[in-house]
Amino acid sequence: MPTNPGLTGIAYDNTSGTDVGVSGILFTLTDVHALSPTFGQSWTDTTGADGVANFPNLEDSFFDMVPTPPSGYYFSPAAFRTLGYGGPGQGVTVRFYRKSGAGTGSIAGTVTLGGAGVADAALTIGSSNAYHDQQFTSATGTYSFTSLPPGTYNIYISEGGYTFSPTKYESVVSNNDAITGKDFAMTAVSRTFTGTVTAGSGGLSGVTITATGQKYKLVYTATTNASGVYTVSGLGLDTYTVVPTLANYSFSPASKDVYISFYDITNVNFAGVYSPSLFKMSGYVLNGAGTGIQSVNVALDQDGVTIKSTYTNNRGYYEFTSLLAGRYVVTPRYNGWVFTPSSTQVELLSSSLEVNFSAARGVMGHVILGRVRSVMPYGGGSGLPGVLITLSGPATRIQRTDKQGVFNFRSLPAGSYVITPRLSGFSFYPELINGVQVDDNISTSPEVVSFYFVRLA
């Protein structure tokens, strides 16, 4: 992700009616976007006499900014989530106001979509007494603004690509009031995407198209007509994983991610191939307590190429269907998690095969990178794809080199590792590399860990 000029937090005291900067306030900023390179990292800064805390040169991402109030005070808002994004000379400023003492009122409700609670929906509240706050719904769609001083409050909700009923609530709060039932119902703006499924030179009918929203988890289906054409409608803003299925057929690609914003999408196309005697591979990704881990990306590789990819459901279950017999490498991935095994090579010979993984919160940042290439000057130092690289030590990993002969092992625990290359018809120098060390003070980089190959006669 590109970097942006940064974020600024300002702590004001306006109890006198004038905004005055407050010095000595500790601000904490945390990256909360799972796809950001700095996900989970936090930074701190303390305000100077002007009340300003600065966080420069950030990745484009979503951040939670939280000021720590001095004893006897609280801030409005108590925390704020903002998008750190901008071109040259741009930035984002978030203002926090220090108040003397909190109230005892509260307002609560639920946000739903299609009758189900919506997680992580953003609500804001403002009042006649200059109170301001922001909150995100829980996993079940509930929210609750607490410690409210007396006043008249307006609550708003905003999610792009959706309308709301009602559009806002206005409530008068006195001390000790506990107001409930301030519920919002979301409705999608009803966008569509269309496509065609072909087999050979013609359309393929009867294919079921399933679209699953990655944020709101709503599922939509459609079926191709006699010409292989389909339309999925009624969609709101979300990224949808689109999967075609038909008995005895495999599809290329096996799935597509389609981002729906404010426009309809066309040409979400697939090609089907009649493939009898197809098999299934499935399994679970569970934590140490036996609970399924949702949204883990599970990749299926064959001959060094990823041929299918899917995500675990809320039970930690994943499934690949329409597979031909053969050898595969299965690899789970999820930022901040370490899996055992990290990847595994299996041979699919029967109608179904179960491949399970255990997951634990991992240590981020320890990486081993390397390359397998030809001996100079023969072959020009070109990389060799498809080499099976085995990593052993505190963690055991299996990976094949990419088209440039590059391999990388990430999210490793600290320690000493042994790396071994293998590919039929080739010999390697060295045969293995022993004692590759990673810890907080040592990092390896591309070309530091290198192998050279010679094709056997």
Write the layout of secondary structure elements.
Blueprint (H helix, E strand, L loop, with lengths): L2 E11 L6 E2 L4 E6 L10 E5 L5 E8 L1 E8 L5 E3 L3 E5 L7 E8 L5 E9 L2 E2 L4 E6 L4 E5 L5 E7 L2 E7 L4 E4 L2 E6 L4 E2 L4 E5 L2 E9 L2 E2 L4 E6 L5 E5 L5 E7 L2 E8 L3 E4 L3 E5 L9 E5 L4 E8 L10 E6 L2 E7 L5 E7 L2 E8 L3 E4 L3 E5 L3 E3 L2 E5 L6 E7 L13 E5 L4 E4 L5 E4 L5 E8 L3 E4 L3 E6 L10 E7 L2
Please name the defining characteristics of this protein:
mainly beta; 6-stranded mixed beta sheet; 45 strands; globular; 5-stranded mixed beta sheet; 4 domains; Immunoglobulin-like; about 450 residues
Task: Describe the model.
The protein has 457 residues and is mainly β. It is 0% helix and 56% strand. The chain is built from no helices and 45 strands. Strands 10, 11, 14, 16, 18 and 19 form a 6-stranded mixed beta sheet that branches.
Structural class: mainly beta
Instruction: Give the domain tally.
Output: 4
Q: Give the distance, in angstroms, between the N- and C-terminal Cα atoms.
A: 45 Å
Tally the beta strands: 45
CATH fold naming of the largest domain: Immunoglobulin-like
State the name of the first-level CATH class of the largest domain: Mainly Beta
H/I helix tally: 0
Report the C-alpha radius of gyration, rounded: 27 Å
- In helices, the fraction of residues equals under 10%
